[in-house]
């Protein structure tokens, strides 16, 4: 029995000789060229530069000194504050009401589900401007608000026009309209969570509230946050419609009032646009960090497991050359 000389692991030399295979050469990858992309980029950059130079030099109607004069005017800053308040208050109410409507849409009770569907049908099917006009006329439609037993003399009666300010009516009008859209966003997030999560929470003895607040909603937030951030930014711009209530202290209407006195509408439009862009940029940064927080662990994958012992190639040996191994030809009943 011949013995095969053993070689230490990792010291195997490449085979040599006329029949030996040569190792393949390394692939030299050549980057694919895209000349038309470069041409398009140059054209776009040239158009942008020409537009900026034209706006800065050749368009006196922009009146940039007038823009700088009113950009930080006290009235404009106060109007930006009202715009932020309208956005925040309306979105808080809309999110809370949207969660409730989404749960109602998923309820097995047909009456509850029908009420939620009717709400969405009404507020999504009519323009927000029309709704705000209705809220502005609420004092005409309902002159008083009476508290008491129906068909009897009211215990207390309030004058509607004295009870609700235009700011409050603008917040309610925006919030009720936005709640219809938030309900569908929240419902989509809840449906995106696997049904097994709900079943597992029920098997562990968690009630509906704890299942929803600790299991379902935290996982659904990854789906809910991006469109909700878009709705917040959209709400910021929708506040320009509250003049239909009429509420005239928000950013767009306030700058329009200043333009009516200065006869300079274009500079005031630029002032309003700069403020909208500044607030939107801050909201986009906040949305980015919220998305990153609720997306923790989603894109992370475990690293591939590495072997604990270093592996290398082994030389092939015949079965008869291994101690304790009998070739098939020498076994009882074995073949040739």
Automatic annotation (TrEMBL):
Coiled coil: none annotated. SUPFAM superfamilies: MetI-like (SSF161098). It comes from Agromyces lapidis. It is found in: Cell membrane. Signal peptide: none annotated. Residues 8-23 have a biased composition (Low complexity). Gene3D superfamilies: MetI-like. CDD domains: TM_PBP2. Residues 80-287 form the ABC transmembrane type-1 domain. Pfam families: BPD_transp_1. Residues 1-23, 300-336 are annotated as: Disordered. Its main location: membrane. This is Amino acid ABC transporter permease. It comes from the Bacteria. It is a multi-pass membrane protein.
């Amino acid at each position: 029995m011949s013995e095969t000389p053993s070689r230490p692991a990792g010291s195997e030399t490449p085979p040599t000789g006329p029949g030996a295979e040569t190792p393949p050469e390394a692939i030299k990858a050549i980057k694919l060229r895209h000349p038309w992309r470069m041409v398009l980029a140059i054209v776009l950059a040239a158009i942008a530069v020409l537009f900026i130079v034209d706006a800065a030099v050749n368009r006196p109607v922009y009146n940039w000194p007038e823009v700088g004069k009113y950009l930080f005017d006290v009235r404009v800053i106060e109007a930006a504050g009202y715009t932020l308040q309208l956005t925040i208050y309306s979105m808080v109410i809309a999110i809370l009401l949207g969660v409730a409507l989404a749960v109602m849409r998923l309820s097995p009770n047909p009456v509850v589900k029908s009420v939620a569907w009717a709400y969405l049908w009404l507020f999504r099917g009519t323009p927000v401007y029309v709704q705000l006009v209705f809220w502005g006329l609420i004092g005409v439609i309902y002159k008083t608000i009476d508290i008491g037993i129906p068909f009897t003399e009211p215990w207390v009666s309030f004058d509607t026009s004295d009870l609700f300010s235009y700011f409050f009516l603008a917040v309610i009008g925006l919030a009720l309209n936005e709640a219809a859209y938030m309900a569908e966003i929240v419902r989509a997030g809840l449906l995106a969570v696997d049904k097994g999560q709900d079943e597992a929470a029920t098997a562990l003895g968690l009630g509906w509230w704890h299942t929803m607040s600790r299991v379902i909603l935290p996982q659904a937030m990854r789906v809910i946050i991006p469109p909700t951030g878009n709705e917040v930014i959209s709400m910021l711009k929708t506040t320009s419609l509250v003049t239909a209530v009429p509420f005239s202290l928000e950013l767009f209407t306030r700058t329009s009032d200043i333009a009516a006195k200065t006869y300079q509408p274009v500079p005031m439009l630029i002032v309003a646009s700069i403020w909208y862009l500044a607030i939107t940029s801050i909201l986009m940064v906040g949305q980015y960090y919220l998305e990153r927080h609720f997306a923790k662990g989603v894109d992370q994958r475990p690293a591939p497991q590495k072997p604990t012992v270093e592996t290398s190639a082994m030389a092939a040996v015949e079965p008869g050359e291994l101690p304790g191994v009998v070739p098939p030809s020498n076994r009882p009943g074995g073949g040739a």
